[in-house]
Amino acid sequence: MKRVAASAAVVLALVVLVLPSSADDAPGCEGLGEYREAMLEAAEPMVAFLDETGIVSASPLTISSNIWLAFSEEARAFNERLLEIEPPEWAVEFHRLQLDTTGMQEQSAKAIVESGPMAVLIFEETINDIEERKDSVPAAIAETCPDFAQFAADWDALDGEVDGTPVATPVR
Fold first, then answer.
1. What would the pLDDT profile of 25-81 be if each residue is shown by its tens digit?
2. Is 86:39 a contact under the CB 8 Å cutoff?
3. Residue 153: exposed, middle, or buried by beta-carbon count in 10 A (0-12, 13-18, 19+)?
4. DSSP secondary structure string, the chain?
5. How far apart are alpha carbons 86 and 83 in whole angstroms?
6. What's the whole-number average pLDDT of the chain?
7. Would you say 42 and 12 are in contact if contact means Cβ atoms under 8 Å apart?
8. Whole-number Å distance between alpha carbons of 60 and 54
9. What are 95-98's contacts with CB under 8 Å, separation 24+?
10. 20 to 30 A Cα–Cα from 94, which one of 5, 32, 137, 158?
11. Which residues of 19-56 are buried (b: 16+ CB within 10 A; e: fewer)?
12. Cα 143 off chain centre by
């Protein structure tokens, strides 16, 4: 769990240090540097919360109501920070996806506090929609702004969760 937290912190630091600043934005990616910086700054408290609580890697059945409530409050605060950011025109759909994600996180965590972990089932359709958009939206944006693909991958890694299905390769 601590390794996941450390990994998320390292990804955040590398994203800030490695990606180009807005003066270096590639054609089609105008505003990426400033947007990236604003988004990462907005994400820092949530990343810290995820690191401190280990909520990403814990079983939802073992998380206390106090942690779910705190997660709901942090998701709401994260959503408010995101609302203060003006995305470049080409990133509007990605930004909407982040707002939808934090809104769903807030509401589902509140439902879990009130009704228990099975309450998350009422969010199944929304969760599935968000998961589908997590792949399609960045891919569509990367057609206009190729540099966005790396930012989207780094952004997705901030929660410390490994997305996708690991593929085993036979040893010969």
1. 888 899 999 999 999 999 999 999 999 999 988 998 999 999 999 999 999 999 999
2. no
3. middle
4. -HHHHHHHHHHHHHHHHHSPPGGGPPTT-TTHHHHHHHHHHHHHHHHHHHHHH-TTTS-GGGS-HHHHHHHHHHHHHHHHHHHT----GGGHHHHHHHHHHHHHHHHHHHHHHHH-GGGGGGGHHHHHHHHHHHHHHHHHHHHH-TTHHHHHHHHHHTT----S--------
5. 8
6. 84
7. no
8. 11
9. 97/130, 97/133, 97/134, 97/137, 98/39
10. 5
11. beeeeebeeebebbbbbbbbbbebbeebbebbbebebe
12. 21
For the chain, the domains span 2-20+32-157
* CA–CA dist 32, 48 (Å, integer): 24
pTM exceeds 0.90 for this model: no
Q: What are phi and psi of 63, to 5 degrees?
A: -90, 130
Mean pLDDT confidence for 11-30: 60
- The tokens describing 79, both together, are 């959503």
What is the distance between the alpha carbons of residues 56 and 161, in angstroms, rounded to a whole number?
7
Question: Which of 39, 55, 40 shows the shortest CA–CA distance to 109?
Answer: 55
Which residue has tokens 């505003």?
31
